[in-house]
Write a structure and sequence with these properties.
With 148 residues, the chain is mainly beta. Helices cover 7% and strands 53% of the residues. The chain has one helix and eleven strands, in the order H-E-E-E-E-E-E-E-E-E-E-E.
């Protein structure tokens, strides 16, 4: 019965699920002793777009990956972004936008001084189509790093 009521409310716009057209995957790869790569992959539903890390100042919210400071973890370099980057002038924002349409892969190298340790962070992102914009999202994540 509750599904029927929910469908009715959605049909008349009373209740709407928040849009989240991006599914995230977080993994850890050991590179060598005390050195790891954090892999963050976003899978984007069509026809949605996910903003790149570097975008026009007037464009949609760029994707940001932030790591919580920890005395036993050191970030090495910056977050690398890989995928089929697209660029287009967006008339809504009146700016060139940089985005991904199917997936994007981020990698951050870290040094761990005293495992085991919990690496914590967040992904701040925004997805949009030609007609609609999802509210910006903040997704918290954590990965336990063990030696071995």
């Amino acid at each position: 019965m509750s599904k029927l009521i929910r469908c009715f409310l959605e049909l008349f716009g009373v209740f709407k699920e928040p849009l989240d057209p991006v599914e995230w995957c977080f993994t850890l790869e050991k590179e060598k002793e005390h050195s790891y790569n954090v892999h963050i992959t976003g899978f984007i539903e069509s026809p949605w777009r996910l903003c790149a890390q570097h975008s026009s100042e007037n464009g949609p919210l760029p994707t940001r990956i932030r790591f919580k400071e920890h005395s036993d973890i050191m970030l090495v370099g910056t977050v690398k972004e890989m995928g089929d980057l697209k660029e287009e002038f967006d008339y809504t924002f009146q700016a060139n936008t940089h985005y991904y349409t199917t997936s994007v892969h981020f990698v951050q190298k870290v040094m761990v001084f005293s495992p085991p340790v919990m690496l914590q962070g967040r992904v701040i992102y925004m997805a949009y189509t030609n007609r609609e914009y999802a509210d910006p999202k903040i997704l918290e994540f954590q990965l336990e790093i063990h030696e071995g």
